[in-house]
Predict the structure.
Amino acid sequence: MEKSIVDLFNDGKIVNKIKKRLPYLFQMAELESSRYGKIGMEVGSLREKVIIALLIYKFGENNVNINIPITKAEIDVIVFGNPISIKTISGKNPGGIKLIWTVDANSALDFMNNYIPICDMILVNIIWNDEGSFYYIPIEVQRETFNKLCKEKYIKLPKPGTNPRGVEMSKDAIIALTNHKLIKRIPIEWIKSEIEYRPYERWVELWSEE
């Protein structure tokens, strides 16, 4: 039988590990990217590394390709030859899934006019002190939703005259995708742990080596 990322959702041991460990690891990512209690934008990259590490743990390094050309901005990892985008969002009414980072209005409009989903998606919805989800959304579901909503309703452009942070997927699109019958979902209770975090400890240890 051909291997695929869907095996992740059929492995009870892995599912339980995701439920137990992901909140802790994402909390560590937030602590590592925080300053004066504010979470920095780099938290997204750290969360992405946590998910990629999970895929390597489950499927092995030989089946997980992280050497993605910079021209393939939407693709974060390739598993069994299948390209995947990794997205994380926070809150009960999520929005803000970035499709592209740009501050130029013309570039944003050009992106919308030419956009079409090109790969599967892993989407993690973080809701601290509540239930969130770990989703797998195949490209077929994304394209079906994209065609049904049309690009103007699937994509949210930055408002003119504001300081735009990029082109986003609309809330309507997120709701439609996460409620589609063909996706895979793992419910997660996002409970924070008591963590004594010392951000410089490992670097001090490395400096202390002979």
